[in-house]
Amino acid sequence: MPAHVASADYAIQRFLDDPAFLSDVVRFDLPLLGDVSGLTGVHLQCHIGTDTVSLARLGASMTGLDFSGPAVAEAARLAAAVGADASFVQADVYDAANILESGSFDLVYTGVGALTWLPDIRRWGRVVADLLRPGGRLFIRDGHPMLFALDVDDDGRLVVTDSYFETTEARVSDYAGTYVRTDVAIEHTVTHWWNHGLGETVTALLEAGLTLTGLAEHDTVPWRAFSGETMTSAGGGEWRLAEMPERLAASFTIQAVKNS
Predict the structure, then answer these.
(1) Which residues contact 169 (CB under 8 A, 6 or more apart)?
(2) pLDDT per position as a tens digit, 51-89
(3) Residue among 44, 86, 99, 95 nearest 66 (CA)
(4) Cα-atom radius of gyration of the chain, to the nearest Å?
(5) Is the pLDDT of residue 3 over 50?
(6) Number of domains in the chain
(7) How far apart are alpha carbons 58 and 36 in whole angstroms?
(8) pLDDT band at 180 (very low <50, low <70, confident <90, very high)
(9) How crowded is residue 171: how many other Cβ atoms within 10 Å of its Cβ?
(10) Distance between CA atoms of 34 and 189, rounded to whole angstroms?
(11) Which of 15, 228, 233, 197 minimizes the C-alpha distance to 5?
(12) Are 142 and 112 contacting, i.e. CB atoms less than 8 angstroms apart?
């Protein structure tokens, strides 16, 4: 967490200095997210809380949940420092409906880079449904599963190297860096992650009793997903393919409502 708190990409100082400042991720979400003022929301896998605090600044009463104690501590520190209507809970996302009050939220929000850490997307869909009140809605933007299935070869070409669909076994990587700019050394470098096909994610929500109300695919993603000159800045913290960006849906937004 120190590497992310210290990174300019998370703009902690901007939050402290500017009461109207919002994270790049939430600012991107706004056209589809709409008005959240007065809503009671929960942000699953909230990390260090910058998106959670941003939603609170838009008028929602927010609860953030993350499995990482250090992340939750940093999130709570930020919310307290800026006076945001946001509280934070340390828990596994699959336990969220047991830790928090089931059926009590108007909004479940999940941000970029969350689903890839989950081994079972259908179980996640049931958690979302359990948290929402009837008529409550889910909003999620995340990296596209096609993006996660690709890599760049030695000739700079995009090639399919990994599974598009959910697999029983996790993919394991050992990488000493991180997705943000930072000079802080990363202590734990081995990660385990899973991909989930877009159809699998939609089906998980439908099976859990939600109705899909929106599905959008975007040619940008809020991190530099490939090294070298493969990607170019699109502004606002977003990145897209430098050549023919229309080749790749880099992220997606899903909106769904819990049936009455």
Answers:
(1) none
(2) 999 999 999 999 999 999 999 999 999 999 999 999 999
(3) 44
(4) 18
(5) no
(6) 1
(7) 6
(8) very low
(9) 14
(10) 37
(11) 15
(12) yes
Q: Report H helices in the chain.
A: 2-6, 12-17, 24-33, 50-57, 69-82, 96-99, 121-131, 145-149, 198-207
CA 70 to chain centre: 18
Which residue type occupies 161?
T
Which residues touch 158 (CB under 8 Å, ≥6 apart)?
150, 151, 152, 226, 230, 241, 247, 248
Domain harbouring 102, CATH code: 3.40.50.150
63 and 37 Cβ atoms separated by less than 8 Å: no
What length does the chain have? 260
**Residue whose tokens read 């992310």:** 4
Q: What is the 3 state secondary structure string of 181-214? A: CCCCCCCCCEEEECCCCHHHHHHHHHHCCEEEEE
Average pLDDT, the chain: 93
Both tokens of 30, joined, read: 């706004």
- The first and second tokens of residue 3, run together, are 């590497």
Domain coverage including residue 146: 2-258
